[in-house]
Design goal:
It is built from eight helices and nine strands. With 235 residues, the protein is an alpha/beta fold. The N and C termini lie close together (5 Å).
Length: 235
């Protein structure tokens, strides 16, 4: 089986639980560290699927790697190679496929409830029983739904938390979190937290309180989404 390509855009925003889940399912993967200067592949068909993680930059920034990444996502969509995006990754997917990325009315930093949409596409990804769950957030921008996409989740402070188009899944929230990732982000993001007071911004101690329980519950939801995505991988 070809490997899944995982694109990292920041050294502190690695694949987290997603990589653990692939390992548990014996799915091979390869990390492409854009932050370390790894080249962008020219074709999506060298991989079983493409996965884009988060990052502090904007998809609207003038960065040399963004145009080839957008082209690669479009190539994957045309070649039926499944794409999965987390936060910045979801924004890259939206922009590549015809959506736009703009500022969100308020920043979301920390734990917040996600509502699962009541439509057939959402039930394909989440099942019939799950109506809401607690996810982790760290973003100040939001994506629009690209043409042909169906919204499958939302939150009080961000209407578009996730969309699906066939085998492709773009998310604004961070379902890949581990306790270690949360601690690292709280350490490196303390200045942003201080400068971003708002109704959806938590302090580091609040984010890490009961983190073990919250992360375990989130992994159960993430595992369901990841398993559904894995079903579409190119073999």
């Amino acid at each position: 089986m070809k490997p899944v390509a995982i694109f990292r855009h920041s050294p502190t925003e690695g694949p987290g639980y997603f990589a653990e889940h692939l390992d548990a399912r014996n799915v091979p993967w390869k990390l492409i560290a854009i932050d370390a200067g790894d080249p962008i592949p020219g074709s999506s068909t060298d991989y079983a699927g493409l996965v884009f993680m988060g990052g502090p930059m904007s998809v609207n920034d003038d960065l040399p790697w963004i145009p080839p990444v957008l082209a690669l996502i479009r190539d994957a969509a045309a070649s039926n190679v499944p794409v999965l995006g987390h936060c910045l990754g979801g924004q890259l997917m939206s922009k590549a496929l015809g959506g736009v990325v703009t500022g969100n009315p308020t920043k979301e930093i920390g734990w917040g409830e996600i509502t699962v949409e009541d439509n057939p596409v959402a039930r394909t990804w989440f099942g019939d029983q799950l109506k809401s769950f607690l996810s982790f957030h760290w973003h100040g921008e939001t994506f629009s739904l690209p043409p042909g996409a169906t919204r499958i989740m939302a939150s009080r402070y961000c209407g578009n938390q996730g969309f699906a188009i066939g085998p492709h899944l773009g998310m604004q929230c961070h379902v890949e979190m581990t306790e270690r990732l949360i601690a690292t982000w709280c350490e490196h993001g303390v200045d942003e937290i201080v400068a971003s007071a708002g109704p959806a911004v938590q302090q580091p101690d609040e984010m890490q309180r009961e983190a073990e329980r919250h992360v375990a519950a989130l992994h159960a939801v993430a595992g369901r989404l990841y398993d559904r995505w894995i079903e579409g991988l190119r073999r």
